[in-house]
Specification:
The protein has 460 residues and is α+β, with helices and mostly antiparallel strands. Helix content is 31%, strand content 19%. The chain is built from 16 helices and 19 strands. Helix 8 crosses helix 9 and helix 8 packs across helix 12.
């Protein structure tokens, strides 16, 4: 027990257990050990309960320790007063605090929680439509966003243990510090639930690393944008989709986590199309491109484990990618044949004659994965075979070969070159249980002037 700390008790007259222990409260007062009594039926008591983070009444608080409900032996040990509640039952569970009631929690956040928020609040004119006001101020990605009221931001911040004023990253292109609070504001606007926030925070951190090179990715005239791949138990807990239509619409977590990252880049970092964002065509994934790997039905180790993390860790892998392209092979029933189909399609990333400069993600569907599993191929074998199949003589790759001006300099004519660098082909398992289709997500240029895939563990 915390020595010398004041004993605080929180009760509510609408709670039967609180009524039951009223004589016990009197005993504690008579013994001189009760420092403060807060009653939630009063405005002052409700505020105190909110600030103390009380969720159940009655609650006894002393320093960092607390006790909820009524249990005679526990109360006597906690208060140091013997003989409490003679004639009362030995135990009764507590009731929900008024601070947890629908409507009340929002009201309390509006009244008292906003003190912890540092962001400037924008006052709208009485006749302004809040949705149109956000469009007019350039805060949206072209679609409506959720108004980030103080109550909504406070609820979002409850999704993480990180302090609201903690700096998550310095966001390009304007190199502005993004705090947890600023990320939470954009997560609200994107439509996230609070439990998504730790994943969004990690995605923002990853996007702003030198290795990922978010500034370069934003400024390129290429098609690409951030692709967010999530592994681990939190992905499943928040309901992310790695199954049917994993790369498409319809799943709130997938859609809003990826969108929140893009809104942070836009609203905090200043990365807007027509400004630093110079994409010639772009791709629809720049609204949001986020999905989970289907680990539970996968025959292979997860992407996160391949990249050095434990199987029980939740991770975010960020890849600078374009839109997905389909791989159709409904006839191959051997790994050898299907691998050749994959290789033929992978050759087209960026351009069939451009090698080593671009990475790719190969998303293997369950039905295609089954072909490899039944043939005894693990992921390492598939990657090895693909790298061999994707190695071509320089005579086919140099400028002018095949009547195509695009290609490598003549100096590579006598070389034999793979399509991808050794770690430039990521393989993940996702998709519906029906359909012999897989997908390729081509990457932006890699190396020092480009982007490297990066994997980070999600913090609570």
């Amino acid at each position: 027990m915390t020595e010398g700390a004041a004993l605080v008790v929180v009760v509510w007259e609408g709670c039967p257990t609180c009524k039951l222990v009223a004589p016990v409260i009197e005993q504690l007062q008579a013994a001189g050990v009760l420092s403060v009594l807060h009653r939630e039926e009063t405005a002052q008591g409700l505020e105190a309960s909110y600030r103390l983070g009380v969720e159940t009444v009655p609650t006894l608080v002393r320093g960092d320790e607390r006790l909820v409900g009524w249990e005679r032996a526990a109360w006597e040990a906690f208060t140091g007063v013997a003989g409490l509640g003679a004639g009362l039952p030995d135990y009764r569970p507590g009731c929900g605090s008024r601070t947890q009631e629908p409507g009340v929690v929002d009201e309390l956040a509006e009244r008292f929680g906003v003190e912890a928020l540092l962001a400037r609040q924008v006052e709208l004119a009485p006749l302004e439509d809040e949705m149109e006001a956000m469009f007019d101020r350039g805060w949206t990605d072209g679609l409506p966003v959720v108004p980030p009221t103080p109550a909504r931001v406070m609820r979002m911040l409850a999704g993480t243990t990180r302090s609201p004023d903690e700096v998550v990253a310095v966001v390009p292109p304007d190199l502005v510090e993004a705090t947890v609070e600023k990320v939470a504001i954009n997560a609200v606007m994107a439509g996230c639930k609070p439990e998504y926030l730790p994943i969004v925070l990690t995605a923002v951190e990853a996007a702003c690393t030198d290795s990922f090179n978010g500034h370069g990715l934003l400024a390129t005239t290429y098609f690409s944008g951030p692709v967010v791949i999530v592994n681990g138990p939190r992905a499943r807990a928040v309901g992310m989709n790695g199954g049917g239509n994993a790369l498409g619409q319809g799943n709130r977590a997938n859609a809003t986590i990826g969108r929140a990252l893009q809104l942070v880049i836009r609203n905090v970092g200043g990365g807007k199309p027509g400004g630093v964002d110079r994409a010639t065509l772009g791709n629809p994934g720049k609204y949001s491109f986020c999905f989970a790997e289907d680990e539970e039905s996968s025959p292979w180790e997860p992407l996160s484990v391949e990249r050095g993390f434990s199987a029980d860790a939740t991770t975010v892998t960020l890849f600078a990618g374009e839109g997905p392209r389909g791989v159709v092979d409904q006839l191959s029933r051997t790994p050898e044949s299907l691998a050749r189909s994959f290789a033929a399609c992978l050759q087209s990333v960026a351009h069939p004659k451009l090698v080593l400069g671009f990475d790719a993600v190969l998303v293997v569907s369950p039905e295609h994965a089954r072909v490899f599993t039944e043939g005894g191929w693990d992921k390492a074998r598939l990657r090895k075979e693909l790298m061999e199949l994707l190695t071509r003589p320089g005579t086919e790759l140099v400028r002018g070969a095949g009547g195509i001006t695009e290609g490598l300099p003549e100096a590579f004519k006598d070389a034999s070159l793979p399509k991808f660098r050794a770690d430039g082909l990521l393989i993940v398992h996702a998709g519906g249980r029906a359909g012999l289709f897989s997908s390729i997500i081509g990457g932006w240029v890699n190396g020092e002037t480009g982007s490297q895939p990066i994997t980070m563990e999600v913090k609570p």
